[in-house]
Amino acid sequence: MRTFRRLRCRALRTVWQPATIPTTIQTYFLYLHTYLICMINGKKIVVVLPAYNAAKTLKRTYDEIPFDIVDEVVLVDDHSKDNTSEVGKEIGIKHIIRHEQNKGYGGNQKTCYDKALELGADIVIMLHPDYQYTPMLIPSMAYLMAQDLYPAVLGSRILGKGALKGGMPMYKYIFNRCLTLSQNILINQKLSEYHTGYRAFNAEILKTINYHANSDDFVFDNQMLSQVFYAGFEIAEITCPTKYFDDASSINFSRSTKYGLGVLGTSFIHLFNKMGLMKSEIYKKRSI
After folding, report:
1. Among 71, 152, 172, 225, which has the minimal tally of Cβ within 10 Å of its Cβ?
2. In the CATH hierarchy, which top-level class contains the domain 44-283?
3. What is the domain partition of the chain in residue ranges?
4. Is 51 helix (H, G, I), strand (E, B) or coil?
5. Residue 212: helix, strand or coil by DSSP?
6. Is pLDDT of 2 > 50?
C-alpha cells in the first residue's frame, strides 16, 4: 500500500501539463484531491539520513517514513564499516552517497543538505537512521513548515519527560540542561534543547547560512542552530520520544566533554559577533 501511494503521488504530480489537464469537473477534483493528499501546500519534502554503521537499524527506520508526503530519501554513508549502503539499495533507497573516507558527522550532513538542495527540496528533514528518533513525527514537523509557520523545527527530547524515560544516561541529561541554559543566555534565545539530532529546515535557510564553514565534527549541529538564529530565522520545537539501546549511535563521555566545550565556544563566538567584537566566517551568508 505504501509503495502504491508513493507511485500514485509521483505519477499525478506529472499530470499538471496543459495538454493533460482533465476535461471534466469530476476528474479534475479527483486529481486535485489526490494531489493535495500527496503534497503539503505543494512543498517537496526530502528526508536525509546521515549514516555510519547503521545497517541493523536502517530498514526499521526507513519502513516508518510516511511516503504519502515524503518525495525523496537521501542516504549518506560516511564510510561505514558494515554494509549500510548495501542495505539501503536492498530496501529501495534511490539516492545513496558513500564517502570514500570518513568525513565526520558534520561532514556527512553537509553532503546530505547539498544533495537535498540539488533535488529541489523545499523542506529537508534530517532523520538519524539508528532508529533513536521516530519517523512518525515527520508529518507534524513538515506541516509546521509547509504552512509557513516556521522555517525550522526541532524534535525535542527535553519537552516532557521523554529523554530519561527513553534511557538517556543521567550525565548526558545533566550536560544537556546545563549547556542549554548557558546557550539560551549567551545567544538570547529560549529553546528547550540544542542537542537533538532530529531537525528540519526549509530551503531558504539552507541557501542562506554558510554551513560549509562549520566543523565536520559533532559541534556542527550547534553551529548550524547558531547560524539560523544569527540570520534572523525562528525555530519551533515539538515533543519527541527517544530511544537509547545498543544499536543506537551515541558518543562516549570523553567525546561528550569535547562536544560540550565546543558548544560553549560556539555560543561565545555568537555573542562576540553580535557585539561586533568578531567577524566569523560561519556567519557570512552563503554564496551559491
Report:
1. 172
2. alpha beta
3. 1-38, 44-283
4. strand
5. helix
6. no
